[in-house]
Amino acid sequence: MLALVCVWYTLRMFSENLALCQVFLMISQRGGEEMSKISKEQVQHVADLARLTFNEDEIEDFTKQMSKIIEYAEVLNELDTENVEPTTHVMDVRNVLRADEVKPSLDREDALKNAPKQKDGQFEVPSVLE
Amino acid sequence: MSFFDETLSSLHTKIKNKEVTVTELTKASFDQIKATDDKIHAFLTLDEERAMAKAAELDKQDADHLLYGIPAGIKDNIVTKGLRTTCASQLLDNFEPVHDATVMNRLNDANIVSVGKLNMDEFAMGSSNENSGYVTARNPWNTDHVPGGSSGGSAAAVAAGQVPFALGSDTGGSIRQPASFCGVVGLATYGRVSRFGLVAFASSLDQIGPITRTVEDNAYVLQQIAGHDPLDSTSAHMDVADYTKGIDGGVEGLRIAVPKEYLGEGVDEGVKARIQEALQKLEELGASWEEVSLPNSKYAVAAYYLLASSEASANLARFDGVRYGVRKEGTDLLDLYKKSRSEGFGDEVKRRIMLGTFALSSGYYDAYYKKAQKVRTLIREDYEQILHSYDVILGPTVPTTAFKVGENTDDPLTMYLKDLLTIL
Lengths: 130, 424
Fold this sequence. Notes:
The structure holds two protein chains of two kinds.
Chain A: H1 2-35, H2 40-49, H3 56-73, H4 108-111, E1 118-119, E2 122-123
Chain B: H1 8-16, H2 22-40, E1 43-46, H3 48-58, E2 71-75, H4 102-109, E3 113-118, H5 152-159, E4 165-170, H6 176-182, E5 185-186, E6 207-212, H7 215-225, E7 255-259, H8 269-284, E8 288-292, H9 300-315, H10 333-344, H11 347-360, H12 365-389, E9 392-393, H13 412-417, H14 420-423
Parallel strand pairs in B: 2-3, 2-4, 7-8, 7-9
Antiparallel strand pairs in B: 1-3, 4-6, 5-6
Helix pairs in contact in B: 2-3, 5-6, 9-11, 9-12, 11-12
């Protein structure tokens, strides 16, 4: 029993330390962010998400420009918005339903008209699976 | 002689009475474009052959609509069937839409003559036209200066007498600001006009509107394009009023609110002076005005750029080099996406996609995107408060007159700050 309690205690200490480590890590990252609101690594990550590629110089430029813009955007933190509802759309939007009837739509030929590459009446892309 | 110093109603009278043919009018439009556009660069694509053929057809019938036979230019982010629509982006250099936007259908119902597609900042992102992926349009009053943006081509074409009216689009001032810079009339229309067929930038803000020489002309064009469209579920379910009916009704008893922030720091003295003159004139004509405040206005630019860029990053995800646009081949599908987008989009578009993707990304969504949406609520409440007690809010459209080409391109943030009055 005692042994079990010890194991539990050790594990608990370990996980608390881990949590504490994470807090320190966050603080040190925050410290880094003070100098530049966003790091080069973050910019690279965002570029990957946005499906964009940049060279070293461009990443450098974006890091500076985005830091400046984001720093400017921090002005919003002056406002207490705790109990404010977000506005996603300025007018009342209602759901639009209609009977499930087949109506004419875009012809296949038209839909493919602007395709950079097509094959057998479909958009053609490089193979995704090996 | 230019026909386009005349109002739409006087042109209509001449067409109706056969004092001028639609062919003559359309030719006059192309003549003026050819004489001036090598300096102004308002147009990206001309549709001369089809326009002249349509004009000849229209001359065989009687004019049954005020816009019958009137030549017009269309901003290049409004899709036109069979006519190249680029959004001034190299990525869409070869894009030929297979359907017309609702506004085009409405204008074609009235038998206008579309002469071509107008220059703009790429994907409507910009305030000077310097972000066009082709060539910077110039201000016809002084070609060293910008025409404004993003609908710079639309405003410049009307100001230069190339067409009697044009359509533009507005997300944070893109109709109103270039109209102001070029001395013409531009109208924002959120909810009033269908956006079906407008290439989406920021959907909670995008709108299509007329750019004209006079307020009356603007009312006539709006009349034809306004109204609910089943293809745009965000278009308002509201009756379309007769917009020219009260146009000569005067301003007696009109209650005008003038937010002090509209005439505050950063607004040129000359601009302030013109507004004071206008207010004095309105008072003489029987209106009254009072100073009011929009206390949250200083947060508008930050909130706008976070929201508009976030929406843009989602909307522009569709440009992947697969279904339309210019494709750059890659080693695999992901590489194809990245190459097509990186080589196709210009710098400002990439900057906004990056900012928007960041603001929407995991860990930052609440701090930036959601925060900006909450701030939008506060700004909206400021406006609602004022409109309880006043009929209109009056102020300058832009803090300055048209600046020089190249003057503000170094720092994106400085350029963004100039949009304060139209973003609000």
